[in-house]
């Protein structure tokens, strides 16, 4: 459904729909712009042209009630020719005639050359402009492409922004005259008058729009207060001026925002492409670059590359749309994305979003339930024996440790397999309920359900050795790499019956976890000491003096304060 | 160098001459001039004619009068002025010379080619 407008064109009356009207108006305006500056001749030519158009239209429109539509105007333009053709006709006579025309200074213009194209004819257009061979421009673009990936973007921007040289005059203008100082000066002058033309046209459009609005408003007002019908001209003039100013400001700000949007989105897209490429190639070449993916990448049914792609699309597509929006702000040449394209893009975006959400939920659930697996090992220790406890690390697997229990997880390679290494190992000693000595190794992990969690716990690899009366525990556990974000832990509890002694080697110092003993000696101070299991708990056999000394020094310190 | 460009330039050069010639045979209004030129394939799009007519009018080679039409508003009929007639004579002389010259040049070329 379209609004129709009644117009008087060359003495004929036409119903014309709004779109067709705008098109016709623009056509006449651009003809008038492309004609010489002699105002009288110009008006006459326009009047003649209008008369001719009305003639052509009345041939088409036989029924008075029929409405002129866009197609009719297109046909008219086809018959009458592009605005450039009018200018062309004038140009011929400019030297012999009386008036100076800016179009006679046929400065070069940048067009795409549709006759000599590889993709869009951008390179050949640019080559025409600089008067050099096309191959150099193509090579330059290729170099830019392989150098920084910038060439592609540049090409696409130029492709969209540059019009293709279609008419004769455009082609002539594209090839143009050689570049010399004189022509450059002309060109600059021409560009300047172009800009001022554009500004005045914009201002005119704006004022018309505002006037329309004002008219409508006043119409409504006059309908409601049916007494007053006369419009206030002074007010609408004032509105015109304000409108012009506001629109000009908005136009400038709009262009600026457009440029900003283009830059930002181009930067994001470029960095995504570059990042994606380098990430992909690193992965592919198996380079250990210490990549840090988001947590949910690790333990997922969806492969890492697919997740990377999804995140890429999830961020990239909105920025691509922004990029196009920016281009559209800058140039009216840029068309809206076609419906299928935008539907496909949004479809892909939604799928990526769903996949990422899915893995997010998967991540959440895969950590939701704690599970454990325990192993009981009998110790061949009887009354009055002394058990030695040591903890060692395998420096071949990971050397940057300081033999201390902590929750950090590191990425290591064992037999070329990516694994998680952690020192999250804690040791406790308790009273055995029987005469038997034994050790319980408890592995803890997480999973999406009880079974899965305890399965994961079972898969945690932890080793120890028992040599005579010495237990040698590993300072670390290994787990498969996908579990790097899971809280896994090894808890070792040694159960000793009464009258069995234990000696904590210095290496155990930072792994003991709240070992209960008489005198509440701190875990750190228990290393290098002998303890014996009493009725209830451990008792130190050789550290009393030292501890007293320590206490003395502490009290002395207190006194000095 | 594109063939279309050259062709267009050639046609354009004699367009003025053609318009004046049409008017020599009697007054005509724009649509008549256009249909004659179009059927002779002298012009492709109609728009080119208007600046040209105005220019010729401003140079005093033609003038126009308004004539009532049975269907619609009055029409502009172009008339050749006295000046225009002289101008046309000059032009046709030049044209004949040009045709001869071109013929001479092209036929000479073809004989040497043979």
Automatic annotation (TrEMBL), chain B:
Domain of life according to the entry: Bacteria
Boundaries of every Transcription regulator PadR N-terminal domain copy: 19-89
SUPFAM superfamilies the UniProt entry points to: Winged helix' DNA-binding domain (SSF46785)
InterPro entries: Metal_resp_DNA-bind_regulator, Tscrpt_reg_PadR_N, WH-like_DNA-bd_sf, WH_DNA-bd_sf
Protein name: PadR family transcriptional regulator
Organism classification: Bacteria, Pseudomonadati, Bacteroidota, Flavobacteriia, Flavobacteriales
């Amino acid at each position: 459904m379209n609004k129709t407008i009644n117009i008087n064109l060359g003495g004929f009356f036409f119903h014309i729909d709004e779109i067709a009207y705008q098109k016709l108006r623009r056509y006449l305006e651009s003809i008038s712009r492309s004609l010489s500056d002699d105002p009288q001749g110009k008006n006459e030519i326009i009047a003649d042209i209008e008369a001719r158009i009305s003639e052509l239209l009345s041939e088409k429109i036989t029924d008075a009630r029929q409405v002129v539509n866009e197609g009719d105007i297109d046909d008219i333009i086809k018959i009458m020719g592009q605005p450039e053709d009018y200018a062309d006709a004038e140009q011929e006579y400019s030297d012999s005639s009386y008036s100076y025309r800016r179009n006679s200074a046929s400065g070069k213009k940048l067009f795409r050359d549709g006759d000599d194209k590889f993709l869009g004819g951008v390179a050949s257009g640019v080559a025409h402009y600089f008067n050099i061979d096309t191959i150099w421009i193509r090579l330059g673009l290729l170099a830019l492409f392989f150098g920084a990936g910038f060439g592609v973007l540049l090409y696409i921007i130029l492709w969209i922004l540059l019009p293709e040289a279609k008419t004769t005059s455009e082609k002539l203008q594209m090839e143009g005259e050689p570049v010399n100082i004189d022509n450059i000066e002309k060109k600059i002058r021409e560009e300047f008058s172009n800009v001022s033309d554009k500004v005045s046209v914009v201002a005119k459009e704006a004022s018309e729009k505002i006037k329309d609005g004002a008219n409508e408003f006043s119409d409504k007002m006059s309908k409601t207060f049916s007494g007053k019908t006369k419009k206030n001209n002074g007010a609408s003039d004032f509105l015109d001026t304000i409108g012009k100013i506001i629109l000009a400001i908005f136009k400038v700000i709009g262009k600026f925002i457009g440029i900003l949007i283009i830059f930002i989105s181009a930067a994001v897209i470029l960095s995504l492409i570059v990042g994606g490429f380098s990430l992909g190639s690193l992965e592919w070449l198996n380079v250990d670059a210490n990549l840090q993916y988001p947590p949910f990448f690790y333990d997922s049914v969806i492969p890492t590359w697919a997740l990377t792609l999804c995140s890429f699309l999830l961020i990239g597509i909105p920025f691509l749309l922004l990029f196009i929006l920016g281009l559209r702000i800058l140039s009216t040449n840029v068309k809206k994305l076609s419906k299928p394209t935008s539907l496909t893009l949004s479809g892909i975006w939604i799928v990526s979003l769903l996949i990422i959400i899915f893995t997010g939920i998967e991540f959440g659930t895969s950590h939701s339930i704690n599970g454990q697996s325990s192993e009981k090992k009998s110790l061949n220790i009887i009354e009055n024996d002394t058990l030695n406890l040591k903890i060692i690390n395998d420096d071949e697997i990971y050397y940057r440790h300081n033999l201390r229990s902590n929750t950090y997880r590191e990425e290591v390679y064992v037999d070329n397999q990516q694994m998680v290494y952690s020192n999250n190992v804690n040791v406790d000693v308790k009273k055995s309920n029987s005469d038997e000595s034994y050790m319980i190794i408890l592995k803890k992990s997480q999973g999406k359900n009880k079974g899965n969690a305890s399965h994961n716990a079972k898969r945690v690899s932890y080793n120890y050795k028992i040599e005579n009366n010495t237990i040698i525990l590993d300072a670390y556990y290994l787990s498969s790499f996908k579990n790097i974000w899971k809280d896994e832990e090894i808890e070792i509890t040694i159960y000793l019956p009464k009258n069995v002694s234990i000696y904590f080697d210095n290496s155990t110092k930072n792994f003991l976890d709240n070992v209960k003993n008489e005198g509440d000696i701190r875990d750190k101070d228990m290393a290098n000491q002998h303890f014996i299991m009493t009725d209830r708990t451990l008792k130190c056999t050789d550290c009393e003096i030292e501890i007293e000394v320590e206490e003395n020094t502490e009290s002395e310190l207190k006194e000095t304060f | 160098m594109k063939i279309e460009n050259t062709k267009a330039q050639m046609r354009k050069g004699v367009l003025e001459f053609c318009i004046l010639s049409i008017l020599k045979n009697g007054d005509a209004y724009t649509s008549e001039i256009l249909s004659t030129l179009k059927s002779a394939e002298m012009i492709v799009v109609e728009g080119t004619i208007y600046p040209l007519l105005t220019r010729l009018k401003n140079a005093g080679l033609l003038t126009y009068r308004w004539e009532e039409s049975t269907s619609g508003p009055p029409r502009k009929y172009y008339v050749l002025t006295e000046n225009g007639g002289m101008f046309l004579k000059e032009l046709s002389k030049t044209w004949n010379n040009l045709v001869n010259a071109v013929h001479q040049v092209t036929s000479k070329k073809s004989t040497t080619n043979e």
